[in-house]
Design a protein that fits this description.
With 104 residues, the chain is of the alpha/beta class. The chain is built from five helices and five strands, in the order E-H-E-H-H-E-H-E-E-H. The protein has one domain: Glutaredoxin (3-Layer(aba) Sandwich), CATH 3.40.30.
């Protein structure tokens, strides 16, 4: 999973293709919980590009996107948000996979 380091890079990444952005933070217990499952999820959905945003590094972007709970996921297709899995609750591997499957 590649890391997005600034707002310009975020705009470039989400502009084209199918992208899932994980918003997370190093101190977040639920984010640490899902980390071991992420490589297998990426492997299960090769048609998607996966990116990581450290919420603390891009807090203004998170505010603009209404991402207040982490971990959270936004799915983009050709620059348009087509799905949001945003909540403060712990997310299971099955929930994450179902979210991606339902994107179409």
């Amino acid at each position: 999973m590649q890391t997005i380091n600034n707002i310009k890079e975020y705009a470039e990444v989400t502009e084209n293709g199918k992208n899932i952005i994980l918003f997370s933070a190093d101190w977040c217990g639920d984010c640490i919980f899902i980390k071991p499952f992420l490589p297998s999820i990426e492997k299960s959905f090769p048609e998607w590009n996966f990116y990581y945003v450290n919420r603390d590094d891009l807090i203004d972007l998170c505010k603009d996107l209404d991402i207040y709970g982490i971990p959270s996921f936004l799915a983009y297709k050709e620059g348009v948000v087509i799905g949001r899995f945003v909540s403060k609750d712990r997310k299971t591997s099955t929930q994450k996979e179902d979210f991606i499957r339902n994107l179409g």
